[in-house]
Amino acid sequence: MRTLEELNLVDDFLVNSLTSHKIYGEQSARYILECILHRQIGKLTVVPQRFFCGENTETHGIRLDVYLDEENGEIFDIEPDQNDGKNEMAALPRRVRFYHAKIDAGNLPSGETYGSLRNVVVIFITTYDPFGLNRMVYTVKNCCVEVPELKYEDGAQTIFLYTRGSEGNPPDELKQLLHYMEHSSVENASTENLKKLHRMVTAVKRDGEVGLAYMKSFEREERIRKQGEEEGRKEGLEEGEIVGKTKEVIKLGRRFGKSEKEIILLLQEELHIDKDKATDFLEKYDK
Hints:
This protein is an alpha/beta fold and 287 residues long.
């Protein structure tokens, strides 16, 4: 497990802790949004890890990393994402579609017309290239296939930001921000705004309450690990122990943003199995 000091802003725990902080939350969130969207942002209400439950126990809910509500403005969701597995990347557009649907459903009060639906911008910040074109910015909106120039304003927009992209012509400030988010050290705070952001990040990392929350998050993962081992033991078979250990490694890997390749390597090391077997285990037990 990495220490809190070693985390970067692409790690969901740190970005949640920063943007929800009682002193630095709104200020840091506003800077990040203004840098991405190139416009001034109004008063923000920050809701870290906003949950939208399923309609019942049989349907899927979501947990949004950083949910931001602009007063008399738009709704934003910022999702740092480091899960670069083939399956996750292939499902990303459908994942975004579901996020938009749940956010919309949670923001249309009974009796209101569809015209009152607010604009929603979902922003994914990734350390992998989601579409393989080496662009730093991919902006996605719905459109008419037959008449692309037709204005189709449904208020939904998705922005994918690839931290290492080089194609296109993104503003220098955005390039610097994304580089800093992936490598959040003082050396990469190359502008006055980033130096200010880095001071906030440093203060949050030194906040005792944040440190305690990080320890508790690790303790939760330890309980999951032990439960996995217990599940294996209850099966009373060597195979059951392997299953428990496999689930434990996968859950911890997902929790800390490990890629599929990294999880496969962890499975090989922990279970002393070859790459093909580890790949099979990941596909079978990653549920």
